[in-house]
Every structure is written in structure tokens, then in C-alpha cells.
């Protein structure tokens, strides 16, 4: 007759199975580098890990939005800078044309240059981003911002929409400026004028330099107006840079917090695993030895 009972065997096997399960769990932690393998291991920590991962994902989306916005804003800034340079050159030619030392032929040549500059301006205001969307068309990004009518006059085809992206939970960033604000609202006395209207008003008068009233001041206003638009875009770029730095710092902090919650202490777990393996082997050997003993072994 055996000394060990069915209950003793069952309890011992349950303890061995429990030890084996804990060993497998630690082996999995070492293999994955993660301290929590499933939510039931630590429900509170699992909730915190899930929240931290969601925050990191959302933060990464804001950083991606800023990257796209900066690209578009930089293209817009460059286009406005080019437009300002063209208007400045037209202003210089207009001043020169009023100088009596220049001949009619000289002024005709100046007019031709102005026409070329206007055509270049038309290309600039129809600039597109890397995805082929118009920079200055407002919400109508899938069409040209400006077009020529049957008489060759340049008309705005976009709207006053202001495209923005989210760069935090409660902060947005403008992707640029609509063409109406940038090129159609040059201050002139008590109203606003189109940059193209200002150019077209002086274009046909270079022969005798008999320019319309306020032509020179309107060109100066156009230069100043474009400078203001560049300032606005520059402010948006600065805002993007500052927020990008803040989000990158936040991403580092979130990663560190997530690591503290999620990453396993490999050294500690390896030490625990070695101890578990020794205890399991010792318990297995003891169980096997006890299971082989009979009443006669105890009567000796």
C-alpha cells in the first residue's frame, strides 16, 4: 500500500502545474520584453498602457499634420516672395518710364517686360503643392486659382476658404492663404484693388508714361500688401515649428512613460525564472521519490 494519497498527488500536480505556468509566463516576458502579456495580468496597468498608446498615436498624427502643413506653407511663402519681387520690378519700371531721358522705344521695351512679368505672376498665383492642389484657391484646391477671361483679363476662380489642420487637441494651423486675400485686396484709397487690375491699368500706358491716377501708390500698396501676407505665412510657420518641438518632447515623455508601464525588467525576471526552475526541478524529484515509497520504507 502506498503512503501518498490521491488528494496528495492531485495537490502536488496542481502546484507543479502552477509553477510551470509561471515559468512559461516569465519566459514569454523575456521573449517579448513586455511585463504585461494580457490585460488580466494587471488590469489597471493595461488600461494605462492602452491610454498611453492612444496618446502616442494621436501625438504622431499631429506631428504628421505639421509636416504636411509646413511643406505647403513653405511653398506659399516662396510663391509670395516671388510675387513680391515681380511687383517690385514692375514698380521700378513704372518709375523709370516717367523719366524723360527714356525714349518711346525704351518704354515699349519696358511694357514688354511688364507683360512678361504679369504672365509670370499668373503662373505664380496658380502654384500647386506636391500633390497637385492649388495653393491659392481656398477650398477649391482641385482647380486653378486664377484664369483668363475671353478678353485676356485675369479673374479669381477660387473662394475665401481657409484650409486648416489640427496640431493638438485644441489648436489648428492654417495651410496657407486664399487668393482673394493675397492678391485681390490691395488697399487703394477707400477700396481694394486686384494686383492684376493694378498691373493691367498701367500696362498699356508705357508709351507716353501717362499712367492712371494712384498707379505708383497702388504698386507700392501692392508691395506692402504682399509683405503682410508673407508675415502671416511666416507666423504660421513659426507656430508650426514651436508646436512641432513641443509635440516631439511630449512624444519622448509618452514613450518613457509607456516603457515604465510596459517594459519588463529582464534581469529581475531571469533571476526569478532561474529560481523557479530550481524549485520546480526539486519539487518534481521529491514528488517522484515520495511516490515510489511504500509502508515498508517507513517501517525500516
Report on this structure.
With 300 residues, the chain is mainly alpha-helical. It has helices spanning 6-32, 43-97, 104-125, 179-183, 195-203, 215-262, 266-292, 295-299; strands at residues 146-148, 154-156, 164-166, 172-174, 186-188, 191-193. It has a domain at 52-257: Up-down Bundle (f41 fragment of flagellin, N-terminal domain), CATH 1.20.1330.10. The chain is 66% helix and 6% strand. α5 (195-203) runs antiparallel to α6 (215-262).
Give a topology summary.
Blueprint: H1 6-32, H2 43-97, H3 104-125, E1 146-148, E2 154-156, E3 164-166, E4 172-174, H4 179-183, E5 186-188, E6 191-193, H5 195-203, H6 215-262, H7 266-292, H8 295-299
Antiparallel strand pairs: 1-2, 3-4, 5-6
Helix pairs in contact: 1-7, 2-3, 2-6, 3-5, 5-6
The CATH C-level class name of the domain at 52-257: Mainly Alpha
Mean pLDDT: 82
Number of helices: 8
The CATH architecture term of the domain at 52-257 is Up-down Bundle
Strand order within the widest beta sheet = 1-2
**Fraction of residues in β-strands:** 5-15%
Largest sheet: 2 strands, antiparallel
Q: Which fold does the CATH topology of the domain at 52-257 refer to? A: f41 fragment of flagellin, N-terminal domain
- Gyration radius from CA atoms, angstroms: 38 Å
Overall SS class: mainly alpha
Shape call: rod-shaped
Helix content: 55-70%
Q: CA-to-CA gap between the ends?
A: 15 Å
Helix-strand pattern, N to C? HHHEEEEHEEHHHH
Low-confidence stretches: 294-300
Task: Please give the number of β-strands.
Answer: 6
Q: CATH superfamily of the domain at 52-257, called what?
A: f41 fragment of flagellin, N-terminal domain
